[in-house]
Amino acid sequence: MTTDGRRLRGLRSREAILEQAVSLASVEGLNGLSLGRLATATGTSKSGFFSHWQDKEELQLDAVEWAVRQWTEAVVAPSLLAPAGVRRLFALHEARLRFYSDGVLPGGCFFFSVQAEFDDRPGAVRDRVSRALRDWLGFIRRQVSEAMALGELDGSVDPAQLAYEIDALGEMIVLHSRLHDGPAAFVHGRRAVLQRLRALCPDPSLLPED
Amino acid sequence: MTTDGRRLRGLRSREAILEQAVSLASVEGLNGLSLGRLATATGTSKSGFFSHWQDKEELQLDAVEWAVRQWTEAVVAPSLLAPAGVRRLFALHEARLRFYSDGVLPGGCFFFSVQAEFDDRPGAVRDRVSRALRDWLGFIRRQVSEAMALGELDGSVDPAQLAYEIDALGEMIVLHSRLHDGPAAFVHGRRAVLQRLRALCPDPSLLPED
DNA sequence: GAGATATACAAACGATCGGTCGTTAATATA
DNA sequence: TATATTAACGACCGATCGTTTGTATATCTC
């Protein structure tokens, strides 16, 4: 027997803790998040964390892992329902916008907070977060290449270049919507990518007009 | 007499402290920055800070002010040397790229770190940083409008929309260059804005080809 | 049922946090 | 020259940081 109530309960609370950690980290970052506050938020004691993780960094690494899974399920997976090509590319962008506007995470985007926090802080967390960004950009880039292969994007497009643009225009919505002009940021972030794709697409009717 | 050695020395050390604070905050944020480490970095005692500022938040606010001045002098002012219109708009973008690639600040961009840190943290610092972002976007928007008035940008352009795109494509260079692909981020960030402007400009010869 | 294992906790650790207090020495004001 | 004022400091405050230790207890293995 490996289905044991004790370990199962451990796994459940482990997941609950990680969910809270990702949620809080989207607001105050993974370092800004303190074990004391995380304990309060989860209704446990902070010493209990050390039954699950060796130290704070291990918890942070697992939180990144959890956030990657969440992002994959909520943003990447839905986009795969759209037909490959330029429509899937825009579906990916819209899934991201929905993730933000739905308020899935109180801070908007876990990766925005954490990457800004760790881009200058060498260590395991930085490496893990860097890999997450590389994988994400790689996925966008592959969708661009596939759209080109399908003849749905101009042949002169540089996939890495366009992937950078799509990511940058999407990511900065988080900051602008919270710090500057609220809903207008979503309009700008959506339209920027949409018009860029339409301009590069031989058959713009594949995409909404606006 | 108001030119007094004592107060002058105070002003000098005040400026030196703020410069260090902005520098450190570009790496670890304005909250991540602790008074103890700032004291070590400046070779002073942390209790000395309270001769200049009432509390940490006042120091943070002055640090933002200092960073705004630095940004204005190093990025905004040089762009004004270029002729108004689309050339000035691109000169502004290039001045920003130079600010990043020259390594003026060890963390790349003070505002990127601090805005990501405070976008979800209500208070005076958030308000001040929000205003800085508003002013910066307003400046870009005015340059767009001026370029349109000069007939150097397509009449269908929405200035706020284009300002968002220019800022987003420039800002994310900081993150990508540090966390992902180094120099390639500069190429992507530069080319994205350049090609966007060229596509909207009736006379692309005003801008470099690549 | 016995013994090992694992979850979770309270209490406490040294370090560091932002901040206070009282003092010293240099300068400004009179 | 006498008197405020000021920059700057060392010592210390309570709170919180991440972490360690020891313990109680529920579950799993045998």
TrEMBL record, chains A, B:
Protein name (Swiss-Prot/TrEMBL): TetR family transcriptional regulator
Gene3D superfamilies in the cross-refs: Homeodomain-like (1.10.10.60), Tetracycline Repressor, domain 2 (1.10.357.10)
Domain HTH tetR-type: 11-71
InterPro entries: Homeodomain-like_sf (IPR009057), HTH_TetR (IPR001647), Tet_transcr_reg_TetR-rel_C_sf (IPR036271), TetR_C (IPR011075)
KW Transcription regulation (keyword) present: yes
The keyword Transcription appears for this protein: yes
DNA-binding region: 34-53
Species whose genome carries this gene: Streptosporangium longisporum
Keywords: DNA-binding, Transcription, Transcription regulation
Listed PANTHER family: HTH-TYPE TRANSCRIPTIONAL REPRESSOR NEMR, TRANSCRIPTIONAL REGULATORY PROTEIN
